[in-house]
Fold:
Amino acid sequence: MNKALRQAVIAGNWKMNKNRAEAAELINALKPIAADKTCGVIICVPYTNLETALELTKGTNIKVGAENCHFKKSGAFTGEISADMLKEMGVEYVIIGHSERRQYFAETDLTVNRRTKAALSAGLKVILCVGEMLAEREDGITEDVVELQTVAAFTGISAEDAKNVIIAYEPVWAIGTGKTATADQAEEVCGFIRKVVANKYGKEIADGMTIQYGGSMNEKNCAELLAKEDIDGGLIGGASLVAEKFGVLLAEASK
Ligand SMILES: O=C(CO)COP(=O)(O)O
Structure:
């Protein structure tokens, strides 16, 4: 099965949580838990914790990501951080297009595309988030929404660069609500996204691409989700803030 070709990747998205001391405590607890796991392990942390995270994860199998980056290299963009700035620090991954950025910070498909391009050309790997709102699912347009977001995000991106993208399917109605998509619902959309990628880049790239599920994925429901053919890991919010819970996800994804 093609799933065997792909490494499962569990990424934590800490969002706007943890001060430096708390970040250090969590990472130190995570290190021994992650050490023997075969899945990819990423923690995406607030900018203020990047230095701590990079320092504490040196020589471990935990990779560090940021939660956003701007599309310009530098300039008058108060409050923004460029992809080059992240790369220079030693950051490896960046989340782009999270639904909270789309909902609360006016992120659009156009800016998601620009940020994705900037991140890739700076040499970062991207965790690209797509997903429908509840009303869109109820209107039966989930696939249209997700296809548009995916195609828009990859506009102007080469097949070679696309290999450095992980897609996270995160239905907005499942984020932080405790309401998970059923494993079948998640699988259906992740499989559909793989077809969209295949249409653009061909089957080989689509088969090799890691497609995660995100949205109230936790230590209790992860086994069923991760067993699905097209779900190659998870982007985890709440459950990534507690080492033992995150550890269960890592163990499950390493089976
Ligand atoms: O948004 C998410 C990860 O990016 C999911 O958050 P929760 O796991 O807290 O629902």
In short: The mean pLDDT is 97. The first strand starts at residue 9 and ends at 13.
